Amino acid sequence: MMLSLVTAIGLLLLIAGISVHHLMESQLASRLAHDGESLLGGLSVRADGRVVLDPRRIQGIYLQPFSGHYFRIDVDGEVMRSRSLWDETLEVPDVPVGEIRISHVTGPEQQPLLLWSGTFLKHGRPVRLAVAEDLFDLQAGFRRLWWHLLGGSLALVLLVLLIQRFIVARSLRPVAEAVDDVARLEQGEATALREAVPQEVLPLVQAINSLLQRQQQRLLRSREAMGNMAHAIKTPLTLLQQITAEQARGSDDATRAQLEHYIHKINELIDTSLRRARIAGDSLGTSRFDLRNDLPVLVDTISRLHRDRRIAFEQHIEHADTLPMEQQDGMELLGNLLDNAWKWADSRVRLRVDGSTRPLLLVIEDDGAGVGDAQLQQLAQRGVRHDEDAEGHGIGLSIVKSLVEALGGTVEFGRSPQFGGLQVKVYCRWPEASSGISQ
Amino acid sequence: MRLLLAEDDQELGARLKRFLDRQGFAVDLYDNGVDASFYGAETPYDVIVLDLGLPRRSGLEVLDDWRRGDVKTPVLILTARDTWQEKVQGLQRGADDYLTKPFHEQELLARLQALIRRNTQTVGESLAVNGWVLDEETQSVSDGERNWPLTGIEFRLLRYFMLHPGHILSKSRLTEHVYEQDADKDSNVIEVYVNRLRQKLGNKVITTRRGQGYVFGARD
């Protein structure tokens, strides 16, 4: 774009320069021809046969030394020179009679001259006549003109470029906004692109939105299906469990324990796979777990479920409005963590969220009995025991562990330095922002 | 204690009803959301057990119906849906407790008793009024020295009295909370059971307010 513009303007300048140059020289040449003809007309033959020049026909400019205007007349071996030549000579080419020649020569004081010369027959005698004019002023004027043209053209190019840039930026602004929206989508700050865009971009934005909507609906449907499946399987499982418990009295204790163990195991397996299937993970267009709206509701729910326990809950949330995970994923994670803390705490539960670092850090602590070193180690390993009789924090934390791992984060179990109970640290990965578009 | 049980699985429903009957509840079982919604608003239940996956009208919608209709009966959601999202939804829409399937019957019973006590603002693990202690597990009552076993109806009646000490309870109110929907509701039967309790525990334990009803633990 820029290159073609510069080439075009350069070519224009070149053509303009050459034409102007030609025009000026031909103008000058015609003036010289006038002067020459006037001089020729001033020649007359005296009685003694000598050819003389009528001084009245000589313009003043030819009389000033080195004025830049010169002539030379050669007739019968005699040379008549303009006074302006002073003691210099003017070299004149030999031109056959009837021809006019225009040439560039160097004159006195290194002046660049345009020379008009020709040979004429006057009173039967050949007269060689040459008139010259200094080109210096003309060339200077021409150069000045050239510079003006060049400067003007450059300014024009710059102006055109600026205007073009402005127009492009203006017409692409909606596209840039859409790109920003995509970035917000990735960060989970938006669930759809805004459709307040020009006609040209609208179909694209609508296509993306309908794609997102389909994805969201698919997630919703699959979660619903999981819920229905849980319902369908768990009701007979409940019956099985209760029939087993009822049979207990009077029957074989070992068999009953075995049956109960397997019923429990089936339940665990169903829970684990359903939970895994429900994780939304990085799905685009889903809303984030909102610490300002979702957390209070969750805490309220948990404290109501454990109404008989008097727990003082503290939360310290810094540099974070949302968790880097889908809303229901966040509900599951925090729900299990807080529920577990509530169950085992003596009187205090504390949640800290620090969003100033990547990954985001989530810390849940309680002042309960905590867990022993052996169990801490067991928690840290994969495949935590799912036994019902596993002491203390078993199952809730194994859910947390698998959930965090599925979300690409890490989890650490330890002892709370301040409260003495269990401390769970969760490092939550943020989705990678695609580089280059969110500037 | 009148209890509404909304459960669509026939066998689990019947089994739960039998269990809760044995525990001294007057249980009405409905297997769909529309009936549950209607009878839950119609009858002064003491506690409700609600399954979320009901046919015709979902459990959450039924819950909305009740709470909008100013039914304040405590509701325990009993469901296979065990995500925190669903628990939050259930409790925020007015449920009081949430139990997921599979569950142990004793766990359900403990939660129901806690709900009833909370609702009648009775504190403590066991029900004790004026030196009388009701043992819900053995369905018997003691004064610290002697222990009297109670029949099913006697237990239901005494528990209702003890949950509302000092209140005047009419015969029809007692009937409503002691018998299930399709039982033979002759309010004279209440008189018979009140007299039986008096025979066991002494005449003073329940006083009669003529034309109004009965009062347990009245201070005179």
Q: What spatial order of strands do you see in the largest sheet of chain B?
A: 2-1-3-4-5
Uncertain segments of chain A of ≥5 residues (pLDDT<50)? 383-392, 434-439
As a whole number of angstroms, the C-alpha radius of gyration of chain A is 51 Å
Helix/strand order of chain A:
HEEEEEEEHHHEHEEHEEHHEE
Low-confidence segments of chain B: none
Strand arrangement in the largest pleated sheet of chain A: 4-3-7-6-5
Counting DSSP H or I runs of 4 or more residues, the number of helices of chain A is: 8
- Gross morphology of chain A is rod-shaped
Task: Sketch the topology of chain B as an H/E string, one letter per element.
Answer: EHEHEHEHEHEEEEHEHHEE
Q: Tell me how many strands of chain A there are.
A: 14
The interface involving the most residues is between: A-B, 35 and 29 residues
Compute the separation of the termini of chain B in Å: 27 Å
Could you give a short account of the major beta sheet of chain A? Answer: 5 strands, antiparallel
Tally of alpha and pi helices of chain B = 8
Radius of gyration of chain B: 18 Å
Share of residues in helices of chain A: 40-55%
Shape of chain B: globular
Fraction in beta strands of chain B: 15-25%
The helix-and-strand class of chain B reads: alpha/beta
Quaternary organization: heterodimer
Structure description:
The complex is a heterodimer of chains A (439) and B (220). Chain A has 439 residues and is an alpha+beta fold. Chain A contains eight helices and 14 strands. Chain B has 220 residues and is of the alpha/beta class. In chain B, helix 2 runs parallel beside helix 3 and helix 6 crosses helix 8. The model of chain B has no long low-confidence stretch (mean pLDDT 87). At the A-B interface, helix 3, helix 4, helix 5 and helix 6 of A face helix 1, helix 4, strand 5 and helix 5 of B.
